[in-house]
């Protein structure tokens, strides 16, 4: 297990569609462990395999307990071949990305989503998410399609750079 280097905007792999995973084997499980090590080291809320240069359809979601409100449970998900099968409502919120360090902007997303995927045992799972979880799921699934959060910003005036010393405050709002 090892934290990998997160590639940044400008690397063409971030703009490519990831390849569907046919078999959940030890190689896929190792990739998942590397994603977990990487997202934890970066203190992010989620990470997709293309962000470490691997064009495979796998994401991890890592929302710590009490992140939004005290008493909220944490969420840790590893999803293989995730796809949104239902989406409703609308929310607009601040997002950032580990692959575009320091930049944040207001992004519209669905308020509620249902995602179909495989788990690490190759079994089909469905995950329902609202609010922040829905936002993180959509953000990470976008990475599998070669889409970055900046592509989703409707009002470009909300895009801003926040220097490192102020980044922790901004990450409290996003951090995917």
Which helices and strands, and how do they pair?
Blueprint: H1 26-42, E1 46-48, E2 58-63, E3 75-88, E4 91-96, E5 103-109, E6 112-118, E7 124-130, H2 131-144, H3 149-152, E8 160-161, H4 164-171
Antiparallel strand pairs: 1-2, 2-3, 3-6, 4-5, 5-8, 6-7
Q: State the share of residues found in helices, binned by percent.
A: 10-25%
- As residue ranges, the low-confidence spans are none
Task: Compute the separation of the termini in Å.
Answer: 21 Å
Rounded to an integer in angstroms, the radius of gyration calculated over CA atoms is 15 Å
Number of helices: 4
Overall geometry:
globular
Secondary-structure element order, as H and E? HEEEEEEEHHEH
The major pleated sheet works out as: 5 strands, antiparallel
How many β strands by DSSP? 8
| Mean pLDDT across every amino acid position | 94
Class by SSE composition: alpha+beta
Strand order of the largest sheet: 1-2-3-6-7
Percent in strands: 25-35%
